[in-house]
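During the second half of the funding period, the structural biology subgroup turned its attention to how the target accommodates small molecules. The most pressing case was BIS(adenosine)-5'-tetraphosphate, which had performed well in the primary screen but for which no bound structure existed. We therefore specified the complex as follows and requested a full 3D prediction, including the ligand pose.
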Amino acid sequence: MRIVLLGAPGSGKGTQAKLIVKERQIPHISTGDLLRGAIADQTELGLAAKKVMDAGELVSDEIVLGMLKDRLNQPDAAKGFVLDGFPRNVRQAEMLEELLSELDIQLDHALLIQVNPDEVVARIAKRAQEEGRTDDTEEVVRNRLEVYREQTEPVADFYRKQDIVSEIHGTGSIEEVHDRIQAVFRF
Ligand code: B4P
C-alpha cells in the first residue's frame, strides 16, 4: 500500500505514520526526519536546511526530492510506503507523480488529517517542552502554519482530482485517530 499523509504541523502525521507502518510492515518515509538526520550528521545539505527549518520555511524542492528519490529506490520501499511530510506544495506533488510514473507505481491513499490551529499550537508547545526542537517555538510554529495554509493545503485539491483523498478528524486520542484511519483502509 502506498500512502501520503497530509496535515498541518502537529496534526499527528508522524504519530499516525508510525502506527500504520508497524501494522503494515512498510517503511515510514518522513522528509522531516531525513532532513533532521542530515542536520545531525552535519552534512553540507543539513547545514543549509537547518537555517530554513528554524525559520519555519520549506527547504528547496530539489534538495527534498533528491533525498526522497534515494529513499524510494531502496529495496524496502518496493512493497509500499507511508510518505509523511511530502509533498509540501503542488510542485512537489507534480515531481512525485513523475517519479512514481518512472517507477510504474501509483498512490493508493492521500489521508488528510484535520486538526484546528489552536490544538496544533498546544500540541507543539508540549513537544517543545519535551524534545526542544528548534523549530517548535511559538513564533516559528505560527509561520509554519501560515506556510501550510498557503503552500500545502492546495496539495489536497491536487489529490482530490485523483479521487484518493480521505479526510480524517484528527482530534481525540492517538488510538481514536488511528481507528478512523483503519476504517478508511477497510472500505
Ligand atoms: P516535519 O518533520 O514534517 O514536522 P511537522 O509538520 O511538525 O509534523 P510531525 O510529523 O513532526 O508532528 P506530528 O504532527 O506527528 O517538518 C519539519 C520541517 O521540515 C518543516 O517545517 C520544513 O522546514 C521541513 N520539511 C519537511 N518536509 C519538507 C518538504 N517536503 N519540503 C520542504 N521542507 C520540508 O505531531 C506533533 C505533536 O503532536 C507530537 O508531539 C505528538 O505527540 C502530538 N500528537 C499527535 N497526535 C496527537 C493526538 N491525537 N492528541 C494529542 N497529541 C497528539
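Two results from this model are relevant to the next phase. The chain has eight helices and five strands. The mean pLDDT is 96.
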